[in-house]
Every structure is written in C-alpha cells, then in structure tokens.
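Researcher: Here's the sequence for the chain we discussed earlier.
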Amino acid sequence: MTSPATMRAARIENYEGPQGLTVRRIPLPPVRPENGEVLIRVRAAGVAFPEVLQSHGQYQLKPDLPFTPGAEIAGQVVSATSESGPRPGQRVAALSMLGGLAEYAVARSDMTFPLPDSVTYEAGASLMFNYGTAYFALVERGRLIAGERVLVHGAAGGIGTASIQVATAFGAAEVVGVVSNRTKAETAISAGADGVIKADDFATHAAGDSKFDIVVDPVGGDRFTDSTRILAEGGRLLVVGFTAGGIPSVKVNRLLLKNISVVGVGWGAYAFHRTGHVRSEWDALLPHLQSGRLCPIVSETYPLERISDALAHIANRQATGKVVVLP
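Model: Thanks. This is the structure I predict for it:
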C-alpha cells in the first residue's frame, strides 16, 4: 500500500469550539520507525467528549495550535518495521492519541491491535477508550464477581453501553441502566441491559429494597448520593467521570455504615504509564469481541468534512453509543 504526500485532516486552529474546526490538506505525519511507530490509513475514527474540550482549549492535553485531534482509529497498516508487530496491509484498531481525524495517522506499535475480520472499522474505532475504560472499571478496579448485580448510569452513552456489555461478558447476573428518555432506554436495551430506570425515578429506586453490588457512574452530579444508597453491603461505586458537569462529594459515614467503597477509575492515567497494560486489556477483551458478546453501538457516522457537526452532536448531549467519523 502506497501513500500520497498530503492528506485531508481535521484541524483545530482556534478555541471557538466545534464550529471552529476545519478540514485542510496537510503533509502526512512523520513516522519514527526507531520508536516503533506505524503509519495507518484511517478508515474510521472515534470522537468523544475530549475532542469537544480540545476544541475549546479546555482539555488536559493541549498541543500548540494548529493541530489535528483524534485519539482512536481503525484502518489498515501502510508501513511498519517491527517483525513481531503490525504488518503492512493488516486491519487494526489503534490509539493514535492525536492526529486520528485524518486520512492517515501514526500510532505506536504497542498501541496497535489486530482487528478481527468480523469487526467493522466503525466498531474498531469505538473500542479501546470505552471498552478499555469499562474493563478497567468493572474488572480491575471494581473486582466484579460472577453473579453480582450492576447498575450503569448514562447507560446509552459510549461508556454506558460498553459497561453493560463488559459486565455481562464477565459474569454479572443482572445489568440495569439509568437513562433520561425513551430513545436512550432503547439504546441501553439494545446494548444488552436487562432493564432500565428513568433518571427522574432514580431517587425512588435508591430508597427501595433493590440493591446493587456495583454502580458505574460516568455522570456525577446530583445522582451520586443516591448511588451510595442503592449499593448493597460491600458494594462499590465506580467514579468514571462527570458528564453532568458537577463534581460531587461523599459523606464518609455512608461508607462506614454499609461497608461500601467509592473507587476512582482513571483509565488513561493508569494504563498509558504502564508498558503492556493496554495490550493485556485488549487480550482480555478479544475473545468476547470475536464471539460477538462485545459489539460497540455506533449511533452516528459523519464524513470528515462534517467534523464540526459530529462534535456539536456530542457537545449537545444528543449522542447515544459511539460517534464515528469516516475520513
């Protein structure tokens, strides 16, 4: 596979938000084979809330302007030098960290994973951020035990749908999602949830007798306190994020009275600084991906020229499942 001298790429040239993005033709990114880097023809790129924050200059990773965002891709390897790593022409999913919203992108070989033929590029670009986070949350941090009951907030979102499927694949007896409307309820059920609770009714459920061993919370905000109430004895509340905007606090007497735990889940901060950790998670997820038990919900796809619309869709909290751009 040969590559041209230039490519189309989405560019953040200012901090005006999603509508400030534009598509330019720029040189292909440099590849450093000595560092184990590979060049990938991008067929699909996942987008998520971090790209929205980057468009405002509010994300923790803040490259010099202008730059090409995009951390999660799937495509075909164009060039690679490692005999034991990715091969030219191979279908892969990869974490590019930056530069993925383009026709070509560079990724490290240890962050590049063979993509089964049964998995589409769109699904491949929807995997590692959401499913890596869900696996880290439920299995590594939450210590999920087969037969336990799991509750997932934001159950129609990318993290939510991934958490539903990971919990089921790794032995949960029942998985219930919390959603804000009927359309999102349908998404959670299609992802494999055994049932749903409307967000408006969550406080009532939390005060009832039905209890859960694990709560996955990528939402934060006002529901946090009620999440501690709905935990069973010895339960774990997994703090994944704060898409509701508010960062809650916990009264520690609640932890003591029921022997429950509030557990931080910072997947990237942990996994990216431990050589081989992301690959070990990929290896754990792969059998379930091949069996079809893990099947990313891709709700919308956009051409690269509509990258602003894709990010605005996420910023306006209209997205369910994963949003993907096709360069």
